[in-house]
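Researcher: Here's my situation. A collaborator sent me these components and asked whether they could plausibly form a single complex. I don't have experimental data yet, so a predicted model of the whole assembly would be a useful starting point for our discussion.
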Amino acid sequence: MRFWRPLRKRVQKELMKRGFCVGCTRSLSTAERVPYPGEENWEFVLCRCGRIFVYDKLINSYRRAEFKEVKDINFAGQLSDPASAKRKKKKEKEKK
Ligand SMILES: [Zn+2]
């Protein structure tokens, strides 16, 4: 047990650095993104399993969001905002 604990932590850190969720190992590149208030180089990344990460554009790296960062933000409202969903669809169309 003493051996596995730090290894697990290391694996989780490595997963996050590479852009994967530590809980469900989905790629975070396809996860929902929400602007981070007051930090234009950061954004919240919402995994479908419910975990929330913070993406730092400057160092191209992810970390777990802290409770104090997310407690005041209504992510449910952000996610169900029809305008932003529309914008996203449009973007995807433009890609093709
Ligand atoms: Zn996940």
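Model: Some features of this prediction you could bring to your collaborator: Strands lie at 32-35, 42-46, 52-56, 61-64. The first helix runs from residue 4 to 17.
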